[in-house]
Amino acid sequence: MRKVITVVFIILMLFTMTAQLFAKDPNLSIYEIQYTENPDGSSYYDEQAVNCEGGIVIHKWSRGRKRLILYDPNHPDGWGGIMVKGPFNPNVFEDVNSGDWISLENVIVYEELNKARGNTTLFYDEYSSHTILNTGHELPEPLVVDVNEIAVNYDPVQETCYVADHRAEKYEAMYIQARVVTVADVNVGSHQDNYSLNKTDDPNIYCWASDYMNIDNPDSYTPHPIIESGLNACGVSGILEQYTKLSEGWDYYQLLTTKQEDFQIEQLADLDGDCDVDFTDFGIFARHWLQSGCNEPYWCSGADLTKDLPDGIVDAFDLIKFTQYWLEGR
Question: pTM for this structure?
Answer without folding.
Answer: 0.83
